[in-house]
Amino acid sequence: MGLPVEPPLTQIQIPPGHSLDEWNEAYAKVERYLTALRLRNKFLLGQYVYRILDRATRRACTETHVAPTELAMEEAVKAINDWVGEVLGADVADTPHRIATQGRLAMLLADVPGRWQALFLTPGPWPDAFVKAMRESYLRAGPDFQISSMQPRPIDLGPIHTLTTLTKRPYLKMVILWIFLMAAAVVVWLVTH
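Given the sequence above, the corresponding structure tokens read:
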């Protein structure tokens, strides 16, 4: 099972107003981001970064005030969210934060970087085993809701409450305790100095 046939790579044209160093930094940042997702195959990694940077350079022509690294990272997140949304059959517009977190967690739980690295960011159709593993992992990545019942309980104020409720003069024991502690501190100070 190989990558789907796509047009050959062409050289990315750097938009005016940006330097080659800025785009090199954007390349490195996107590559580190994809590597953090545990994608290790250098050949595939280079293709993914190239496609993301191609989308970012097209945006840079109209958004000249935005830094290339920012454009590249926005495109990387958007590309991954869109792909995960397609695989899971979820609408990215309705659940952008859920797709961003649970989708990446589902990728790791389904071992996409290990077993299906060649399918990452590729258009469908995908193998049924891959889609099933991603969807099951996506459901496991969510919280387990449990019905619970919380009954009010009396507040335990600890030893202070106990000391103040034992006698008719609640502060007497506390004053005696503080006097004793202060006397002990004075004795310790006199012995050590």
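Residues 20-141 form one domain. Try to locate this feature in the token string yourself.
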